[in-house]
From TrEMBL:
<feature type="domain" description="Neprosin PEP catalytic">
    <location>
        <begin position="169"/>
        <end position="298"/>
    </location>
</feature>
<dbReference type="Pfam" id="PF03080">
    <property type="entry name" value="Neprosin"/>
</dbReference>
<dbReference type="InterPro" id="IPR025521">
    <property type="entry name" value="Neprosin_propep"/>
</dbReference>
<dbReference type="InterPro" id="IPR004314">
    <property type="entry name" value="Neprosin"/>
</dbReference>
<dbReference type="InterPro" id="IPR053168">
    <property type="entry name" value="Glutamic_endopeptidase"/>
</dbReference>
<feature type="region of interest" description="Disordered">
    <location>
        <begin position="94"/>
        <end position="139"/>
    </location>
</feature>
<protein>
    <recommendedName>
        <fullName>Neprosin PEP catalytic domain-containing protein</fullName>
    </recommendedName>
</protein>
<dbReference type="Pfam" id="PF14365">
    <property type="entry name" value="Neprosin_AP"/>
</dbReference>
<feature type="compositionally biased region" description="Polar residues">
    <location>
        <begin position="117"/>
        <end position="131"/>
    </location>
</feature>
Length: 298
């Protein structure tokens, strides 16, 4: 998977993300009248959380402990993100039973005749604006916070997509999209150049994205996908920045798959790009235009 900003001084940045194909609010705040020490009856607010909320917080904290790995270095991004530089073999992908204890292999060679050069990866995302970078042997991972999970109401909803009734056309209720697609017998890769914008969404539960979407199977329960691009999702990230994302599923989003590195799935090998981090710069109307190039190959 390659990532680039095109036009003028920007060129392709090598990024390979391996794919493992193995198969509101806590608002229950109550008030009660209490007796003061002097015996005078006063109304004092006392907040407490029902057992259900306490159990929910325990689940969230357990998930955060699992997903946020020990960092060799921590970088504060201007947009509020915390980027942890995590040893490559400790990233979430290696929590999977079939990978536990192993280390990432070297990225595969790029496809023949793929023309690319390495240049200025530090200029592609907001977290690199201060000149900070992750050391070799580590991968940058956006730290997941309690607020992130609470916005989605549950751990499962947070890390998984909210897609419903996946269709090839644009007639699905509540899901407007345009699709350019090609069918064939055997494909070993695909590439797309995506112009990067920051579209406004009308509320925190809407999202907007542009992506490359590689699928196998039908549009039924056997749908198997690899997805990557940029997205604006206030529910997932808490802001309206366009962010580089990945997604996968092996069963039409029913029980498998998640965004970015929020579960075992993608194996990241670059220390230059943080999946889920904000993209910078972005295109402007009647101004400069910026693209990202994304390539997926077998």
């Amino acid at each position: 998977m390659a990532y680039s900003v095109s036009h003028n001084s920007f060129s392709t940045i090598p990024l390979f993300v391996g794919f493992l194909v193995v198969a509101s609010s806590l608002a229950h705040v109550l008030s009660s009248p209490l007796m003061s020490d002097s015996g005078n009856r006063q109304m004092k607010n006392r907040t407490f959380k029902p057992a259900k909320d306490i159990q929910k917080l325990r689940r969230i904290n357990a998930y955060l402990k699992k997903i946020n790995k020990p960092a060799m270095k921590t970088i504060q991004s201007p947009d509020g993100d915390i980027i942890d530089c995590v040893l490559s073999h400790l990233q979430p992908a290696f929590d999977h039973p079939e990978l536990r204890g192993q280390k990432p292999s070297d990225p595969p060679a790029r496809p023949k005749r793929h023309n690319s050069t390495d240049a200025n990866p530090e200029n592609l995302q907001l977290w690199t604006g201060s000149g900070e970078s992750c050391p070799e042997g580590t991968v940058p991972i956006r730290r997941t916070t309690e607020k992130d999970v609470l916005r989605a109401s549950s751990v499962r909803r947070y890390r998984r997509t909210r897609r419903r009734h996946i269709r090839r056309d644009s007639t699905g209720s509540g899901h407007e999209h345009a699709v350019v697609f090609v069918n064939g017998d055997q494909y070993y890769g695909a590439k797309a150049s995506l112009n990067v914008w920051a579209p406004r969404v009308t509320n925190e539960y809407e999202f907007s994205l542009s992506q490359i979407w590689i699928i196998s199977g039908s549009f039924g329960n056997d749908l198997n996908t690899i997805e990557a691009g940029w997205q604006v999702s206030p529910e997932l990230y808490g802001d309206i920045y366009p962010r580089f994302f990945t997604y996968w599923t092996t069963d039409a989003y029913r029980a498998t798959g998640c965004y970015n590195l929020l579960c075992s799935g993608f194996v990241q090998t670059t220390n230059k790009i943080a999946i889920g981090a904000a993209i910078s710069p972005i295109s402007s109307y009647n101004g400069r235009q910026f693209d990202i190039d994304i390539m997926v190959w077998k």
